[in-house]
From TrEMBL:
Protein name (Swiss-Prot/TrEMBL): Alanine-phosphoribitol ligase
Record keywords: Ligase
Highest taxon, organism lineage: Bacteria
GO-annotated molecular function: ligase activity
Keyword rRNA processing among record annotations: no
Positions of the Styrene monooxygenase StyA putative substrate binding domain: 146-255
InterPro entries assigned to the protein according to its UniProt record, in alphabetical order: FAD/NAD-bd_sf, StyA_sbd
Taxon lineage: Bacteria, Bacillati, Actinomycetota, Actinomycetes, Micromonosporales
């Protein structure tokens, strides 16, 4: 039986560990925290997943929240111009609803399941020296911990990483008390608020440790009017500052959000990071090689909601490639090939689209998002592509393709002459 060590117990690491375990591999997971530590700690992400990545989990029998997590069939998109109402507003169905499961709910369940199924769990904040010592005992070592010295083992790929500074400062609150949209009572939606020259606000129904809730987060352009959370000192101050910014920058939602309260004292998060793509193979001091996965090697800004989806997609691709590799050695060529398979299937398109959305929107993007309020076909396609961003290559990323697509949609709507 082949032995595999996975360092890191987040979406990518545990997904891969449970998948390998399902196929009979001897898997060891190294986690910096116990299940109880995760449950009682602070939130670490926003983690909305679309249908295709939830399908991976259902196929492995590790998705336990159908009928429990809020059902999200709709999306809404708004552009604020500084006035009391949005200058652009449209909605589109999420044809195959996704779900947002707080990692404080999901990862403890997965850690316990991994141990129940016979997996070995090492609770330790692993160092490079630890991994170097352990590596000789395993056929393959996968690093799924995307921060600190472990991530720094993996060299930044300058050709795929255009940024050297954070492009957004993030402020997240998990809340109860959000009133339903008066136009769609009883229906949960994922809302995108584009706030030009300031940033964005995204709202998602979620399941947290206290039950169903909503996650609100600002993506603030550094140094801009929304970048006002760096000095908050308490969760309560964080929420109060958030509500104040809603009043200033998204007044059209203030009535809906007039009775917000934090889900729990750990329900806030703030900070920022540099979007980075790293090389997938790192060499240990002893000369051994390890393979990076998830945000160790592709860390995109959460503006497009792809973090947990990319982690799940990378786990699915890596699982497929490991199974296909059979009994052959997991050498550097295998590691490079495995990552490049993931990059070509998912990483390249998602990273390019996310980086485009971090920039001031070019004219063709503004035209597309504006036209979606007139033509539902455009909004439907835009939202559907969140689940598979490869589709954006065909009509969204390039000004010429966008122009041709808009002309095609307008022509179809006009009908035969």
């Amino acid at each position: 039986m082949r032995k595999i060590l996975i360092v890191g117990a987040g979406q990518a690491g545990l997904h891969l560990a449970l998948g390998l375990q399902h196929h009979g591999y001897d898997v060891t997971v190294v986690s910096a925290r116990t299940a109880e530590d995760i449950e009682t700690g602070n939130v670490t992400s926003t983690q909305f997943q679309f249908a295709s990545t939830l399908k991976y989990e259902r196929e492995l029998g590790i998705y336990f929240w159908d009928g429990v997590a809020p059902y999200t069939p709709n999306t809404r998109f708004m552009v604020g111009g500084g006035g009391p109402t949005p200058v652009v507003e449209w909605g589109a169905p999420l044809r195959n609803p996704g779900a947002d499961i707080d990692q404080r709910v999901k990862m403890p369940r997965w850690l316990r399941l991994f141990e129940e199924r016979g997996g070995e769990l090492i609770v330790r904040s692993a160092t490079v020296a630890d991994i170097d010592r352990w590596a000789a005992e395993y056929d393959l070592v996968v690093v799924a911990s995307g921060k600190g010295e472990l991530a720094e083992m993996f060299e930044r790929n300058a050709a795929r990483s255009p940024y050297t500074q954070p492009q957004r400062m993030l402020s997240v609150v998990y809340v109860n008390g959000l009133k339903p949209d008066p136009s769609s009572p009883g229906v949960h939606s994922v809302d995108f608020h584009l706030l030009p020259e300031r940033g964005e606000m995204i709202v998602m129904p979620a399941l947290t440790v206290t039950g169903p809730c909503h996650i609100l987060f600002f993506e603030a352009i550094p140094g801009g009017p929304l970048d006002v959370f760096r000095d908050v000192t308490t969760p309560e101050e964080h929420l109060a500052r958030f509500v104040e910014q809603l009043r200033l920058h998204a007044p059209w939602v203030c009535e809906q959000y007039s009775r917000l309260e934090l889900t729990d004292p750990g329900g806030t998060l703030r900070g920022g990071f540099v979007p980075t793509v790293r090389r997938p193979v790192a060499t240990l001091p002893s000369g051994g090689r390890v393979l990076g996965i998830g945000d160790v090697v592709v860390a995109n800004d959460p503006i497009t909601g792809q973090g947990s989806n990319m982690a799940a997609k990378s786990a699915a691709v890596y699982l497929e490639q490991i199974l296909r590799h059979g009994d052959r050695p997991f050498d550097g060529a295998f590691m490079e090939r495995t990552f490049e398979t993931f990059w070509e299937r998912h990483g390249r398109a998602t990273t390019a689209w996310t980086n485009l959305m971090l920039s001031p929107p070019p004219p063709h993007v503004q035209q597309i998002l504006g036209a979606a309020s007139e033509f539902s076909t455009i909004g439907d396609r835009y939202i559907a592509a969140f689940d598979d961003p490869n589709d954006f290559d065909e009509w969204f990323m390039d000004a010429g393709k966008a122009s041709a697509y808009l002309a095609e949609v307008a022509g179809a709507a006009a009908g035969p002459r």
